[in-house]
Specification:
The protein has 197 residues and is mainly alpha-helical. It contains 5 helices and 4 strands; from the N terminus they run E-E-H-H-H-E-H-E-H. The strands form 2 sheets. It has a two-stranded antiparallel ribbon with strand order 1-2. Strand 1 (3-5) and strand 2 form a beta hairpin. It starts with a strand and ends with a helix.
Length: 197
């Protein structure tokens, strides 16, 4: 057994027990780390949504509002398509589960911010007054529930709502399908490896 120096002047031995514990810790950390990262980024997106000065968008700066909306949705769509491509090409060095779920969270908040900015213009929405209302309406629209307590009345609000429904059907459904396909393939591979042993 080899000796190695640790903090201070003590000497530790690389015993099988120490090595097994270290390997277990590394395996656990490598499993947990993406979830911690994902949760942290998702929390940052939510905090940013509630802290960003969205009151300065909407009717006060309509051109900037529409450009930001289009730019953010385009970036999210391109990144989603890239992740879908990684899944279809079966690239082992990627983590689409982490990225796709974060992009879905981001797209929900982009639509929420847009609805909130649109609601500042009179006649666009009935019942949408706060950021929580906008987030609620986005999730209800995404889930195709449609309670009817918040309704788009103006043409711009209706266009964005139709765009969200289309965006969800095309990009988010494709991303979720690609992700579940990858997860299913991994489970099948692990099962086959287990049978060979």
């Amino acid at each position: 057994m080899t000796e190695r120096r640790t903090a201070g002047s003590r000497t530790a031995r690389n015993t099988p027990r120490n090595t097994a514990w270290s390997t277990a810790w590394n395996t656990t950390w490598n499993t947990v780390r993406p979830w911690i990262l994902r949760t942290g980024i998702a929390a940052a997106v939510v905090v940013a949504y509630f802290l960003l000065p969205l009151d300065h968008l909407g009717p006060q700066r309509p051109a900037l509002s529409w450009v930001l909306f289009a730019l953010l949705l385009t970036v999210v769509a391109v990144l989603l398509l890239r992740q879908i491509r990684h899944v279809l090409l079966d690239r082992p060095d990627t983590r689409p589960g982490v990225v796709i779920s974060l992009l879905i969270v981001l797209s929900v908040h982009v639509f929420s911010a847009t609805y909130y900015a649109l609601a500042k213009q009179p006649g666009e929405f009935d019942g949408l007054h706060t950021r929580v209302d906008a987030l609620y309406f986005t999730v209800v629209t995404l889930a195709t529930v449609g309670y009817g307590d918040i309704t788009p009345r103006g043409q711009a609000a209706r266009v964005v709502t139709v765009l969200q429904i289309t965006y969800s059907f095309v990009f988010l459904t494709a991303a979720a399908t690609a992700l579940t396909t990858r997860m299913r393939d991994r489970v099948v591979r692990r099962t086959e490896r287990g049978r060979r042993r």
